[in-house]
Design brief:
Elements: E1 12-18, H1 22-37, E2 43-50, H2 54-64, E3 68-70, H3 73-78, E4 84-87, H4 94-103, E5 107-111, H5 118-132, E6 138-141, H6 148-158, E7 165-173, H7 190-193, H8 197-213, E8 219-225, E9 230-232, E10 253-255, E11 261-267, E12 273-279, E13 288-295, E14 298-303, E15 309-314, E16 325-328, H9 351-366, H10 374-393
Parallel strand pairs: 1-2, 1-4, 2-3, 4-5, 5-6, 7-12
Antiparallel strand pairs: 7-13, 8-11, 9-10, 11-12, 13-14, 14-15, 15-16
Helix pairs in contact: 1-9, 4-5, 5-10, 8-10
Bound molecules: alpha-L-sorbopyranose.
The site of alpha-L-sorbopyranose has 6 residues, from helix 8.
């Protein structure tokens, strides 16, 4: 952290971001707003952003409020005014950038999934562990932990309100790949994305299930499917989800090399059973990350498309009057919310990135370990890899 005199008196943290598409825009918003909403011991400053295309990265810098633009991430890492590197690129570059940034003495925030393989993720976790001994922090961007209703669900479970957990049921459903003419963006190519719905969406729900339960999956059994195996090749670079526009049916096609959907089950050390479904082919579902957790004393249910609400059933109440009740998670004593608006004035998707920036800065200032750490990201990567191995065997028993 640079001890600089500023109008806000707090010391500053120079942030450098690599990547400026969807996630870059979302993270930029978090960094820009965080010290305006939360009282922080350290004030993040948007020092520089990096991307390969000079005019596009300059436009992103201007739009999102970054003081400078670089066309090589190595130059970004080398800057004296950058103390933290935020990696918002496709998964194939995470390991190289993160390891270089940690070696250069920078703190790192890296988008999920941590990497495209267990080998890469393990190298990143080892670099993070060595860097932690030098006082550096490395965090993975599992932003849905920072939805107030999700953080509140964690508090309820940790306080024992559900008792022993029995079932964890997680789905993450989107529909932006239903159209077979949707182009072959980087998210559909294994060499760039590592996997499909599994790494993109499954990584979030694996992390959330383990975070909420406070324990890690012992093993999984899985099925995966690619429904549309060829898609129109992109014209030009791919940035957002739909860049390149739909094909016209005549564009040359390329092979989709990742899953469209993944389905898996697992067991937790406590004996609880967990089920997961990740797909980008669920027509009508835009961003439906949903969970229901059933315990011996009660249940919780959540839907990201209604993210200010948490449903809670307290099974210790008389059966005649018990049932799921809808808690509007907008009270000042709910996680993160004291800093925001009066009760009932709801938050959205973007605020998870402000909360992520806040938690990271707090950890830096207090010396608390990063959470989720690169070690946590590695463990999620191991689960994703186990899912892929199980799905490759397609071990489905035929009814006889
Ligand atoms: C696209 O499926 C995507 O942007 C994911 O990559 C994000 O991680 C998720 O939060 C929203 O959907």
């Amino acid at each position: 952290m640079a001890q600089q005199e500023s109008e806000a008196a707090a010391p500053t943290l120079g942030v450098g971001m690599v990547g400026y598409a969807f996630m870059g825009a979302a993270h930029s918003q978090g960094w820009r707003n965080v010290s305006r909403v939360f009282d922080l011991p350290v004030r993040p400053v948007l020092a520089a952003i990096a991307g390969r295309d000079p005019s596009a990265v300059q436009a992103a810098a201007d739009r999102h409020g970054w003081a400078a633009a670089e066309t090589d991430w190595r130059d970004l890492i080398a800057r004296d005014d950058v103390q933290l590197v935020d990696i918002c690129t496709p998964g194939d570059s995470h390991a190289e950038i993160a390891i270089a940034a940690l070696a250069a003495g920078k703190h790192v925030l890296c988008e999920k999934p941590l990497a495209n393989s267990v080998t890469e993720a393990a190298a990143m976790a080892a670099a993070a562990e060595a860097a932690a001994a030098r006082g550096q922090l490395a965090m993975v961007g599992f932003n849905y932990r920072r939805v107030p209703a999700v953080a509140y669900a964690r508090q309820l479970i940790a306080a024992g309100r559900l008792g022993a957990l029995r079932h964890l049921r997680f789905t993450y459903l989107q529909d932006w790949l239903v159209d077979p003419e949707f182009p072959l963006t980087w998210r559909l190519r294994k060499e760039h994305a590592g996997s499909g719905a599994l790494g993109d969406l499954g990584a979030h729900i694996v992390d959330l299930a383990q975070y909420l339960a406070g324990e890690r999956l012992l093993g999984v059994s899985a099925l995966a499917q690619t429904f549309v195996t060829e898609r129109p090749l992109l014209e030009g670079a791919s940035a957002g989800l739909a860049d390149g526009g739909p094909g016209d049916g005549h564009r040359p096609r390329g092979r989709v090399t990742v899953d469209d959907a993944a389905l898996f089950n697992g067991r937790l050390p406590s004996g609880a059973l967990a089920s997961f479904e990740a797909t980008r082919m669920a027509a009508g579902r835009k961003n439906a990350l949903r969970f229901e957790i059933n315990g011996e004393l009660g249940s919780l249910a959540f839907d990201l498309e209604r993210l200010n609400e948490l449903s809670f059933h307290d099974h210790t109440e008389p059966a005649s009057s018990s049932g799921f009740k809808r808690i509007l998670v907008t009270e000042a004593d709910h996680p993160y919310l004291a800093a925001w608006w009066p009760p009932g004035h709801a938050l959205g998707y973007e605020h998870t990135f402000t909360h992520q920036a806040r938690d990271l800065v707090e950890a830096l200032a207090t010396g608390a370990p990063a959470s989720p750490s690169f070690a946590d990201g590695l463990q999620v990567q191991r689960v994703l890899s186990a899912v892929e191995q199980s799905a490759a065997h397609d071990a489905v028993y035929t009814p006889v």
